[in-house]
Amino acid sequence: xxxxxxxxxxxxxxxxxxxxxxxxxxxxxxxxxxxxxxxxxxxxxxxxxxxxxxxxxxxxxxxxxxxxxxxxxxxxxxxxxxxxxxxxxxxxxxxxxxxxxxxxxxxxxxxxxxxxxxxxxxxxxxxxxxxxxxxxxxxxxxxxxxxxxxxxxxxxxxxxx
Length: 161
Known about the structure:
Layout: E1 6-7, E2 13-16, H1 22-32, H2 39-47, E3 52-59, E4 62-72, E5 75-83, H3 92-106, E6 111-117, H4 121-129, E7 133-142, E8 147-155
Parallel strand pairs: 5-6
Antiparallel strand pairs: 1-2, 2-3, 3-4, 4-5, 6-8, 7-8
């Protein structure tokens, strides 16, 4: 079984989210997304731990980023991956993604999927660096503003670095 916490390249800790983290995660969500999940939605999904798993990147400044995945049958889906704008380009998103992929493999997942805004070049580059490949496109998937989503997938057979 994997350790519960890990250090990132700039001394943030990647760990499972706790209920006490939810207000900070909801605040981050509302600052970063035009159509954010509400604190109530986050609480509801967090409580359903047979389906959802949340992770946070925490540092001296508090919650710097978070990730959420859902596990359905033998497939994991990246539901959210967010890093505070002031902490980007420091490896946090990569560390959060590594943790999710590792834990998904350990849970017996054999594939991973996600949707990403068509205009989100940094996220697309991150996902492609992990071996995700575009398998489809959903027109007008996102709202505020309306935008299409690229659908990505990958097999979860090999270890990530």
